[in-house]
Amino acid sequence: MQNSHGAVALLIGLGLVCGAVTPVQAAETFDLSAAVVVVPKGLSGPPSQAVRMLVEEVEKRSQLRWTVTDAWPARAAAVVLVGPAPFADATLRERGLPDARVPGFDAAEGYRLRIVDAKPPVAVVAGNDSRGVLFGVGRLLRELRISKRRVLVPGLLNVTTAPKYRLRGHQLGYRPKTNSYDAWSVPMWEQYIRDLAVFGTNAVELLPPRTDDAADSPHFPLPPMQMMVEMSRLLDQYGLDVWIWYPAMDPDYSKPATVQAALDEWANVFKQLPRVDAVFVPGGDPGHTDPAVLLPFLEKQTANLHRFHPKAQMWVSPQGFTQEWLDAFVSYLNEKQPTWLSGVVYGPQVRISLPKLRSLIPKKYPIRRYPDITHSRQCQYPVPDWDLAYASTEGREVINPRPRDQAQIFRSLSPESIGFISYSEGCNDDVNKFVWSGLAWDPDTPVIEILRQYSRYFLSDATADDFAQGLLALEQNWRGPLLTNRGVLTTLEQFQGMERSVQPSISENWRFQQALYRAYYDAFLHHRLVYETSLEEQALSKLRQAPGTGPLLAMDEAEKLLDEAVAHPAAPDLRARVFQLGDMLFQSIRMQLSVERHKAIAVDRGATLDTIDEPLNNGPWLKRRFAEIRKLNNERDQLREIASLVNWTDPGPGGFYDDLGNTSRQPHLVRGTGLAGDPGFYETPRVGFITGRRVAKLYPISWRDNMEALYDAPLRLHYDELDPHGTYSVRIAYAGDSPSVKIRLLADEKYVVHPEMTKPRPATVVEFDVPREATRDGHLTLTWYRQAGLGGNGRGCAVAEVWLVKKRSPSAHQPAKNTGD
Q1: Cβ distance 447 to 410 under 8 Å?
Q2: What whole-number distance in Å separates Cα of residue 421 and Cα of residue 439?
Q3: Which residues on adjacent β-strands are paired with residue 204?
Q4: Under the phi-then-psi rule, with left for phi > 0, alpha for psi from -120 to 50, and beta for the rest, what region is 782?
Q5: Which of 47, 246, 409, 775 has a beta carbon 3.0–4.6 Å from 679's, enabling a disulfide?
Q6: DSSP 3-state assignment of 777?
Q7: Model confidence over 98-149: pLDDT tens digits?
Q8: Three-class SS of residue 752?
Q9: How far is CA 446 from the centre of its chain?
């Protein structure tokens, strides 16, 4: 394989091999509408499936049924010649046509695709092997310009290509936790497997009947084991690898009885599956077994697996490990060099970076990536600096096309791996799957070209560029503060233009509906945020008048304004359209966007219709505070508490303030390299969230998002131009979704501001003196650390707000005495 890739690289350098095709004009196309598909005699197995896929997918889009034959047509007709390279070349020579062989090009899964300018034309798909035939057919489908009763092909099409990465896959988990997969039938699975194969996917990861999920779903068309067998069968028919994500969830594998029960359970799964190529056991999330116990257990399971699938591989990941467990894992691999282990998986909750892991384990073990492409927050690769309005409503499993981000994540780390099988919990991440598959074939492919092929193949040639640009615009909607991002409204206008002009077949297409859903949802949130922010500002204005109007009247008037968000909500027409599209997606692709309407398993599992009205301002919290203030005994105390609300962010004279979850109000945050240089956020702080209606009532918005550092990395604020003669205290609002993890604070990395402590719950503001030694030079660095060495998701070092307060003292108001020193 290495030599083949080297040959391909040489040919690319000579200009003889290309992975992408420059779009051509309509005048440079040939007509294949009445084409005949010519294949080798006795074609069977995956290449036969590839031909069936070609004919059926063309027919779906054009209403034309191509004839398949093993003989050259007697009548003059355009030909689509499909088969192994020796067959294709020999057939062309027999017809007196150039075969355009490429010496030395024999890389696995590679193919040649070109158009012979004959009369009539010949489209040639020549695969180096059976998968090469499949992927060559897929590329032809992506390049065809199909409309009703017409099939055209670019005349300049000339591609010789093989994949850069040998593993290109996606996890397709048939289980209740997913937001759509649990409702898919066998034909729906076959269609999706086909779709992935068209873009070069060569592996799919299945899930066993027992995972960390509910045992049943109201949507299951088949029991889990039966569907697993059907999916293994389908993948085998197309010649694609079958992986199994198999968590080791039993409580204690040091007990022989537990091990034997697990061997029996897993064997019952293995023996029923037509095909298994590899098993991946995560070290945690779920599982969490000491590697000293887990690895000997997996050695037994490997022998168990080989009883039914002798060539199948066993892979493991160090997910969720503490530092102690990670050290033990690395030592085990280096010292014992187990021969039963085929490779290591790098996935979420691995406490070190991929390059670091690669440097620690023996080179004999390849690394496979397990990227989380499905979640948008509290995950391996969250949306950078995501606006709280999105995080509170669209949440963790929203429809999330992130083509440019995903390309950055792919390109920055993939050289350390043999490829990937992505982590997916539904078709919400559909665009991301195809970006990863496309880049794993050819990392130099422009993202826009992948999106155009995606749009052309799944929608139409006429909408290819418009829809591709629309997907990029949806990603751009998530850049920066939503309040000022009017591009969100432009994105909706662009999609509404497409919505008005496309054919019914496209408006009923679930991929088009997904993008529309996001465009409408984003625009609705923008209107809500502008409106509800304005209401809050008006309410605060009333509170500022409290010394004149009286506290009770001021709070009554403020509360009346805040209630307008419910009494007269913003953009009801956009909200109604979001719900219409949500119901359409349930019908078209079984997306469960609501617990009540669509029987989603939980609100936080992609049920974004159920969170669409989450509060976007401080209204619920302010109203709770009003109720508490009204109970105070005298007006002076009431006015004092109201003043604390309207002056919330004021650190006082000579002080400094940071709202760390708000990217426009964190002037003292020491930022890292960000997504470009640190996609896993190992050294770069990132925005974290706590969301939900209870949280919105309990805490101000500034506590519902925060800045967090992962694992043992520090979170830092740096201050300059402090008063060297002043004394300071620091007020802190600790937040985040890991309240049990302890935290400590240092000044200038050497003075203890507070030792390791448990964060207060419910959250409140805590205050500590800053040692004067730390500020005497006019500078200060505050550094937070969480408990060292912990495993899990790495979160816990999370801070929401910081006030650096200059303390009042006689020296602050009077000249310093001259002591003669």
Answers
A1: no
A2: 13
A3: 170, 242
A4: beta
A5: 409
A6: coil
A7: 987 899 999 999 999 999 999 999 999 999 999 999 999 999 999 999 999 9
A8: strand
A9: 19
